[in-house]
Amino acid sequence: MNKVLVVEDSSFQRKAIVKVLHDMGLDHDVAVNGLDGLEKINSDSVYSFILTDLLMPELDGIGLIKKLNEQEYSKPIIVLTADIQKPVIDELKQLGVKKIIHKPFEEEDLKSILGEVLDGAA
User: For the residues of 61-109, what is the DSSP string, one character each?
Assistant: First the structure.
């Protein structure tokens, strides 16, 4: 079974994302910031992909992605963000982010993108 790590500090956003994952039959873990997410990733859990926010306390999404790149993490990383500035998008692409989803998102759009990532990861 596919398992997803959701790294998101907003409880409202986490609930919306988890609902989509549940509807898709995907198992998941939740982290409230990048440090929490990094701990979960470095534990025994194996994730099909990471779904992370950018703006979070303690360790933001870009910091998390950079740390994962240092560890040569190979699973897809998807970013959910309200920040659509070109320099941010360009940096995410340089860091190897698989997909960028803009907030607020529509459930069907998120399902479609997650389905594409799962098909590519299979």
Answer: HHHHHHHHHHTT--S-EEEEES---HHHHHHHHHTT-SEEEESS--HHH
Binned average pLDDT, 10 residues per bin, the chain of 122 residues: 93 96 95 97 89 95 96 94 89 94 92 91 48
Distance CA 80, CA 92 (A): 11
Q: What is the pTM of this model?
A: 0.93
Residue 28 identity (one-letter amino acid): H
- Separation between Cα atoms, residue 91 and residue 114, nearest integer Å: 21
